[in-house]
Amino acid sequence: MKKPFYLTTTLPYVNASPHVGFALEMVQADCLVRYWALQGVDVFFNTGTDEHGQKLFEAAQKADMEVQKYVDQYAEQFRSLKEKLNLSANLHFIRTTDPHHVVAAQEMWKRCLKNGDIEKRVYKGLYCVGDEAFIKESELVDGKCPNHPTMDLIELEEENYFFLLSKYQKKLLEYLSQPGVVVPEWRRKEAINFVESGLEDFSISRVKEKMSWGIPVPDDDMQVMYVWFDALTNYISTLDWPNEEGNFKKYWVDGVTYQMAGKDQVRFQSIMWQGMLMSAGIPTTQHILYHGFITSGGQKMSKSIGNVIDPIAVAEEYGIDALRFFLLRHIHPTEDSDFTIERFKEAYNADLANGLGNLVARVMQLAQTHLTVDLVKEIPSTLQSSILRATVYTDYISSLNNYEFDRALISIWSYIQELDQKITETAPFKVVKTDLEAGQRMIHDLVQGLYMIADMIGPVMPTTSELIKQAVVSNTKPINMFARKE
Ligand SMILES: [Zn+2]
After folding, report:
1. Distance CA 370, CA 226 (A)
2. Across-strand partners of 46?
3. Which residues, listed in sequence order, are joined to residue 44 by a DSSP beta bridge?
4. Where in the chain is the domain with CATH 1.10.730.10?
5. CA atoms of 164 and 200, how far apart (whole Å)
6. Which residues in the chain show pLDDT less than 50?
7. CA–CA separation, 325 vs 320, rounded Å?
8. CA of 1 to the centre of ligand 1 (A)
9. Cα of 265 to ligand 1 centre, how many Å?
């Protein structure tokens, strides 16, 4: 029996519509979940929405809305990504305003407190609402937060609770010394350097009078939890924790745990969250995969520049599978990459219209004309034995096992090119005229290759994969899958 897997995305903060960076994270995660499921692994797949904190509180006030109503409306947009990005059916969706999550966050607090890792202190400092975090004087650029140069920092002096992260310096270094806990590898070294440079205890509560939109601190009516302390706990509250049995035991304690996050998340996911887990006596996350950022035309996307890519609009125009393909093939899995509509269209025409779409049409035209259903019906059942011998399949497996989505697709696409060339060079359409059986065998091999491609692209392009498989078993040329875009 294979161990069960657990995989979660980060929870997006619901103060804006889903952006292309989050679509990337979701699609990478969904590709892995589908890939593992095809290998017979039982996977728990989690996403959801982060709904507390100052930023939302202020945004709702500005919109003159009740905060709960405000977050409800955004949570719905994120929930609908399941259909809009064609995500796995078993995807769990947790909201940090769910009552059972609130209970879990409070239990996390109580465990850390009991272990002596939470302490009340007077804190004075500059707070950035954009980051929902205090900014050190040494981090300021021209007196502003480096991430939010147009926002004013708030000077805060209040009595808060602190999480004593500095106590975990040694344990975190031991944790980070394991290869594979942070992917890519060079980011693990970066995390080690960060911890070695010294960890600071951090504030995990706010005065309720000033900011009421948060989970109440247990046994203190005057304070609410800091949004990060609350939100990070979702990764286990989604497994019904603090119930120690059931899903939590199956997936988090006895399973293989994975998290996905953007590259700016290392200090939250690989350090703060792992410290909280250590304090609460819960196993740490085994693998955290960090993706890069997406720029457009070499610049950060922004409304004022007008270079914002709306992933949903792209999916509506070109198809969900085309968007999923581009994000996995042309966006680097861990480095920053550029996404422009021009680049997308170019890839769409070259790889999908002329590449895959054209091969499907060529092979299935030959099959429909010269083969019968009887001659192809055994292809799905013999796939296992034929696929294991193919080099393309070995490359594909080793790439996906290393989370190299782009490399997996490059191998498949070179195989597409190989089949295309084979048709041109061996000309089965001529051979059938002189030796029907020999020609049919050649076409049969091409159909088998096509079926293998359909099988491999399943985790990336689930709908296209199914359409090709159906075309093969019914021995029918399908309608044009990817019409060229001018
Ligand atoms: Zn900031």
Report:
1. 68
2. 8, 92
3. 6
4. 340-474
5. 8
6. none
7. 9
8. 46
9. 13
Q: Which CATH superfamily is domain 340-474 in?
A: Isoleucyl-tRNA Synthetase; Domain 1 (1.10.730.10)
With tokens 């103060």, the residue in question is: 15
| 134-169 confidence digits (pLDDT tens) | 888 888 999 999 889 999 999 988 899 999 999 999
CA distances from 174 to 48, 84, 106, 195, 279 (A): 30, 41, 28, 11, 15
CA of 277 to the centre of ligand 1 (A): 26
Contact, 247 vs 44, CB < 8 A?
Answer: yes
Neighbours of ion ligand 1 (CB under 5 A): 128, 130-131, 145, 147-148
**Predicted TM-score (pTM) of this structure:** 0.94
Residue type for 103, please?
Answer: V
d(CA 232, CA 112): 14
Q: Which tokens sit at 230? A: 């609350």
**How far apart (Å, rounded) are the C-alpha atoms in residues 314 and 324?**
10
pLDDT digits (tens, 9 = 90+) for 198-221: 999 999 999 998 888 999 999 999
Ligand 1 centroid to residue 131 C-alpha, Å? 4
- pLDDT of amino acid 321: 98
Q: Which is the CATH superfamily of the domain at 5-291?
A: HUPs (3.40.50.620)
